[in-house]
Write a structure and sequence with these properties.
By secondary structure, this protein is mostly beta strands. Helices cover 2% and strands 54% of the residues. The strands form four sheets. Strands 1, 3, 4, 6, 7 and 8 form a six-stranded mixed sheet that branches. A four-stranded antiparallel sheet has the order 9-10-13-12.
Length: 191
């Protein structure tokens, strides 16, 4: 199943007889009114939209089913429930734990940059470590699954050893495209 990081539903409606009154969006168990933008004259055509995400419309598992009911100024309504769309939203970035923090602030010949990450809804797409020039190759670091945590989410670990001072970026990206990024500065490594 594909996840999205944010969704907007659009609907263009036309009523040349009495004109449009509005749309009621049905999102999971909720109803949200959306009236025409001009209320003192007859509107024949209008485009309605509603932004759908976890902040505005919380969902237990990120799954949304959406359909509109259109109403004209004469009180006639048309439901598009038979054309409802279902999709998944994950608008939270992955959960990340940076490991070995004690090594970053002490003098050493080699430091291990490491972090673990998981995502509650869409899962992890990839983990990455880069230096300030973006010159770290995939072969320079390791990514591995370390099993499921106590909540049942698959956890991945990403790590690399480096003898070089500098600025490094750790990145975790989930399958909805949400990104967690953190900067790590190593200034006490031998080289």
């Amino acid at each position: 199943d594909k996840y999205y990081s944010n969704c907007t539903a659009y609907l263009t409606v036309k009523d040349t007889a009495s004109g449009l009154y509005g749309v009621t969006w049905h999102i999971n168990d909720g109803q949200y009114e959306d009236r025409v933008s001009v209320t003192n004259s007859k509107v024949d055509t209008e485009t309605f939209s509603i932004n759908i995400n976890e902040a505005t419309h919380p969902s237990d598992n990120g799954t949304y089913t959406v359909y509109p009911v259109i109403t004209d100024n004469a009180g006639n309504s048309v439901s598009l429930q038979d054309r409802a769309i279902t999709f998944k939203v994950d608008d939270e970035e992955p959960e990340v734990t940076v490991l070995n923090r004690d090594q970053y602030d002490s003098y050493q010949q080699v430091v291990t940059i490491a972090f673990e990450a998981y995502d509650k809804l869409s899962g992890i797409q990839y983990l990455k470590i880069e230096d300030e020039n973006g010159e770290i190759n995939l072969s320079d670091y390791t990514v591995e699954s370390i099993g499921k945590n106590e909540d049942g989410y698959e956890v991945f670990k990403c790590y690399m050893n480096t003898p070089k001072k500098g600025t490094y970026y750790i990145k975790a990206v989930d399958n909805a495209g949400k990104v967690y990024e953190q900067t790590i500065v190593l200034d006490k490594v031998s080289k």
